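Appendix C: a fully annotated inverse folding record. The material below is reproduced so that readers can follow the format used throughout the book. The structure is listed first as tokens, followed by the designed sequence.
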């Protein structure tokens, strides 16, 4: 596999590594937070147990002659954990750290809080000297409740940050790629311009003094026109050309005739226009011809220079579908999106720009779409171009 393919493999490995790192960090964060929550739960239960013991001792007749200032301090110091005390008949005796304003506005609020507490932690039982009992129900303090949600909020913020960073870097990378494309296109058009001008001048001189071989003169003219077309294509990539209404039937026929002459006779081209004669749609003809040429060349390479290429057009009034089908080696499903990325190629000598340029031309200059419609290993591939009439 070529170096450019390895670059994408390494890129995918780095993506996987970053995802795994994010998962490890997230899991570690959740584990640490849950450990802290568990510790706080234990501490809060101890606090409630101490509060309940203080209540029991304060109510005990055995301690009436003792110093109870410490017990009052213990009871008073519980300012965070919501507590409701009920008797043996489940009647509410007292409560602490419950929203008194809500109790005043809703007579059932305290009972609702009690029912919620019953579904939470196991109550603490207080047994008095006269063998009467009371149950102390409690729930997490506001701080502990917020801490329970904290790791999930932290994860959401973390992933939002990752998403923003990813979108920012993707935007920067895309901008840089666009600059590279435009710079390459402009420079190529500039470099081709000088030899084309020189060849055109020599052609005019040869026309004034025709050589004995007229076929040679015609071939030189064709090659110059071809060079001029290539320069025009690259110059349009680096600018914002306006599409013109053209007949797709004629464009496809011209490109197919050109490619048929320049490929092996073992490659057969079949055009299926479905009785259509005119399919006019706004396109940039030089660029669209380039798209078809790239698809044809890709198909010929996939078939190792032997097979059939079928081109089908379907006009659905607002949308035009163009399918280019070959009988080549096919594309694995895992590679069907990667093949459109710059630099991806399986050829020993290739830059991996053909399909990338094709996608760019269709999507950015024609507002359409191109994708692998279907592909089977050793059976062939069908590329679909979707153009929309505006």
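Designed amino acids, in order:
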């Amino acid at each position: 596999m070529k170096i450019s393919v390895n670059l994408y493999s390494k890129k995918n490995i780095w993506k996987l590594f970053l995802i795994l790192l994010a998962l490890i960090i997230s899991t570690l964060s959740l584990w640490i937070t849950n450990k802290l929550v568990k510790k706080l739960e234990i501490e809060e239960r101890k606090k409630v147990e101490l509060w309940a013991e203080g209540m029991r001792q304060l109510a005990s007749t055995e301690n009436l002659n003792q110093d109870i200032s410490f017990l009052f301090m213990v009871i008073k110091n519980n300012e965070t954990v919501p507590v409701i005390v009920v008797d043996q008949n489940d009647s509410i005796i007292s409560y602490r750290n419950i929203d008194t304003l809500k109790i005043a506005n809703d007579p059932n609020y305290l009972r609702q809080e009690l029912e919620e507490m019953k579904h939470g932690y196991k109550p603490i039982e207080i047994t008095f000297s006269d063998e009467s009992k009371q149950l102390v129900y409690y729930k997490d303090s506001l701080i502990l409740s917020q801490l329970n949600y904290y790791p999930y909020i932290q994860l959401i913020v973390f992933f939002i940050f990752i998403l923003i960073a990813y979108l920012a870097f993707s935007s920067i990378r895309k901008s840089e790629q666009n600059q590279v494309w435009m710079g390459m296109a402009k420079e190529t058009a500039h470099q081709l311009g000088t030899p084309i001008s020189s060849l055109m001048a020599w052609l005019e001189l040869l026309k004034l003094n025709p050589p004995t071989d007229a076929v040679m003169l015609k071939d030189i003219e064709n090659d110059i026109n071809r060079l001029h077309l290539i320069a025009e294509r690259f110059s349009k990539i680096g600018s914002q050309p306006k599409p013109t209404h053209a007949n797709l039937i004629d464009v496809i026929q011209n490109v197919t005739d050109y490619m048929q002459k320049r490929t092996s006779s073992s490659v057969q081209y079949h055009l299926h226009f479905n009785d259509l004669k005119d399919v006019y749609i706004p396109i940039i003809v030089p660029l669209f011809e380039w798209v078809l040429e790239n698809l044809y060349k890709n198909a010929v390479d996939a078939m190792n220079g032997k097979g059939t290429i079928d081109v089908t057009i379907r006009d659905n009034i607002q949308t035009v579908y163009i399918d280019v089908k070959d009988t080549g080696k096919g594309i694995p499903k895992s590679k069907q999106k990667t093949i459109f990325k710059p630099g991806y190629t399986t050829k020993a000598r290739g830059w991996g720009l053909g399909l990338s340029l094709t996608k760019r031309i269709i999507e950015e200059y024609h507002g359409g779409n191109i994708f692998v419609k279907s592909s089977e290993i050793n059976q062939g591939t069908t590329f679909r171009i979707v153009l929309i009439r505006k």
